[in-house]
Amino acid sequence: MEKKKYKRSRQRDRILELLSQTDIHPTVDWIYDRLKKEFPKLSLGTVYRNLAILIEQGLILRIHSGSTFDRFEVNRGSHYHLICEKCGKIRDFTMPVNMELEREASRMTDFSIQGHRVDFYGICPECQGRK
Ligand SMILES: [Zn+2]
Ligand SMILES: [Zn+2]
Questions:
Q1: Distance in angstroms (rounded) separating the CA atoms of residues 14 and 115
Q2: Which of 18, 68, 90, 119 has the greatest CB tally within 10 Å of its CB?
Q3: What residue segments make up the domains of the chain, in order of their start?
């Protein structure tokens, strides 16, 4: 498979920069709101397009969080997520990635396993009213 080449874009550079400066796993709207101030003519479609390119380049990841909106993060390698079912917040989870799961999957399928993702769902401390 050949990798497409894209012209560098200042907007795309800024999207990547924004994502690398936050750990809130933002939505497209969050990114758009911030970039709009710098690029008044920016459209939401352009943000989507640039996100798709960054994903294709392996620089960022899309997190599918069920019924809520897609969220994005810089590709920092394999890690798990904690997702609050009340407020939708997504947190990186430092629990070590379970490589045994991939070995087990490999034994059970003829797929060549390249990785896995795990999301844990629950209620965050703030929504539990502990804070
Ligand atoms: Zn919460
Ligand atoms: Zn993450």
A1: 28
A2: 90
A3: 1-76, 78-131
Distance 28 CA to ligand 2 centre (A): 16
- From the CB of residue 68, how many other CB atoms can be counted at a distance below 10 Å? 13
pTM of the model: 0.80
In CATH terms, the superfamily for domain 78-131 is: Ferric-uptake regulator, C-terminal dimerisarion domain (3.30.1490.190)
List residues, by chain if needed, whose CB lies under 5 Å from ion ligand 2. 73, 92
Distance 10 CA to ligand 2 centre (A): 24
Centre of ligand 1 to C-alpha 9, Å, is 35
Alpha carbon of 107 to ligand 2 centroid (Å): 28
Residue list, CB under 5 A from ion ligand 1 = 84, 86-87, 124, 127
Phi-psi region of 73 (alpha: psi -120 to 50; beta: other; left: phi over 0): beta
Average pLDDT, the chain: 91
Domain 1-76: assigned CATH number: 1.10.10.10
Q: Quote the CA–CA distance of 42 and 38 in Å, as a whole number.
A: 9
